Amino acid sequence: AADLGPQPVSAEEAALWSRWTIPLPKQMAFSGKLILSPADVGVRVHRDGTDLERSAAEQLDALFEQRTGSPAGGHAFRIVLGVCDDAGAVNGVHVIDPATLRALPNSEQAYAIKPVGDNALYLTALDARGVFYAARTLCQLLERDLTDEKVVIPLAEVLDWPDLQERGEWGGSC
Question: For residue 164, what is the DSSP state?
Fold first, then answer.
């Protein structure tokens, strides 16, 4: 799927990606990156995906369409979104031990992003809200290096959760 297979990520590049994510995820590590044609990347939703999970996928597709002129419809590399089952699997692929997510503060909004092999990145959570926030984080990670000629996919393992139950702007709505 990749031009040269997974490539290493320097500490400087990891720091640059970290600066693009607001709020900064609690845990984020990069095992590598892939440089692909945007036409090779596809976004898939869990087969029983909710409206919010589909909305999260639509945000990723919208980013691809805005930057490349077409949504992410490829097959060589997949971005898969979905609430995990009781075993921590999405579409039959084990992603995370759900007890890890349940133990986090505000666990209904917690999420994990995890590469699976060299051809997939899974975004999962216990609740569709977490899947949505995972997609927002991935959009931030992708937008820096997404053009009509290439996309740099960070093979990032992310675990994140909010400190506060309510997300939004601080200081009211005035």
Answer: S
- Identify the bridge partners of residue 114 per DSSP, sorted by sequence position: 122
pLDDT reading at 41 higher than 70: yes
CA 121, 103, 85, 78: dihedral to nearest 10 degrees? Answer: -10
Helix (H, G, I), strand (E, B), or coil: what is residue 89?
strand
Provide mean pLDDT across the span 93-110: 96
Distance from C-alpha of 37 to C-alpha of 56, rounded to nearest angstrom: 22
Longest Cα separation, the chain? 51
Contacts of 26 (CB under 8 A, 6+ apart): 159, 160, 161
Dump pLDDT digits (tens) for 108-158: 999 999 999 889 999 999 999 999 999 999 999 999 899 999 999 999 999
Closest C-alpha to 83, from 58, 60, 108, 116:
108
State phi, psi for 20 to the nearest 5 degrees.
-85, -5
Closest alpha carbon to 105 in 26, 164, 170: 164
